Amino acid sequence: xxxxxxxxxxxxxxxxxxxxxxxxxxxxxxxxxxxxxxxxxxxxxxxxxxxxxxxxxxxxxxxxxxxxxxxxxxxxxxxxxxxxxxxxxxxxxxxxxxxxxxxxxxxxxxxxxxxxxxxxxxxxxxxxxxxxxxxxxxxxxxxxxxxxxxxxxxxxxxxxxxxxxxxxxxxxxxxxxxxxxxxxxxxxxxxxxxxxxxxxxxxxxxxxxxxxxxxxxxxxxxxxxxxxxxxxxxxxxxxxxxxxxxxxxxxxxxxxxxxxxxxxxxxx
Length: 268
What we know:
Blueprint: H1 2-10, H2 18-32, H3 43-50, E1 59-63, H4 69-74, E2 80-85, H5 88-101, E3 106-110, E4 127-133, H6 141-150, E5 151-165, H7 166-174, H8 186-197, E6 203-216, H9 217-231, H10 236-248, E7 254-267
Parallel strand pairs: 1-2, 1-4, 2-3, 4-5
Antiparallel strand pairs: 5-7, 6-7
Helix pairs in contact: 1-8, 2-5, 2-9, 6-8, 9-10
GO molecular function: methyltransferase activity
InterPro entries: CFA/CMAS, Methyltranfer_dom, SAM-dependent_MTases_sf
Domain Methyltransferase: 54-168
């Protein structure tokens, strides 16, 4: 247990400004609001099927659900799905999409998972499967432990590792912020280690991905400024420096970015 406690103490959140994080994800929600349902070739759905994690009576928790595409997809196969997210806009769009699709067994609500009381809200050992798919909601040992405790059977977490985000990396360097905050590779080790030391037998898979992002200049400014503010204090001068940098990358009113990452999928 001493080793487990030592590991927990090392896994800490890098987030310094929750308000900036909310504003960033609210802005990003615009690009996700009209989503396509994941098909059977999706990594998450393939693992769930391969490991027989759910059936028609299952209850699922989707942490950092965003606009709820996985919640909506799984709703067809289980009894009920609960989705939580920090961004009010993500939840708003998610609810609108559920209504359009006529899905009744999904409940989405806005909350800060780091402050959510799973005991008071009777989440402990409630769900057959708990998901956390590429979400900063699981950013330290406390939030991960709550994820584990909310499940009575299975869990799946997707985490970025070895990520390069060209625009954000340059901005973080300009702000004297360690670019590792964008992809804490050690968090994958912490998660696996916690599960192992708690008596689980976690499995892990990897998936290399590249995303080409195109955003209009104003939207990009809002996103990148708030992303930087999430990790460090920004003066007006520093904020203007970010905007000037983005202006130098402006191509006919748009900012283009390329993200390369290895997604680590840990499940138990």
